[in-house]
Amino acid sequence: MSASETITIDTADGTAEAYVARPDTAGPAPGVLFYVDAIGLRPRIEEMADRIASWGYTVLAPHVFYRSGTAAELAPKGDLHEAGARERFFSGIGPLMQSLTPDRAARDLDAYAATLRGLTAPPGGRWAAIGYCMGGVLALRAAAQLPDEVAAVGMFHTGGVVTDADDSPHLSIPHVRAEVLARYADNDGSMPPEAIAAADRELERAGVRSSTAVYEGAPHGYSMSDTSMYDETAAELHFEELHELLERALGDGAATP
Question: Full-prediction pTM beyond 0.90?
Answer without folding.
Answer: yes
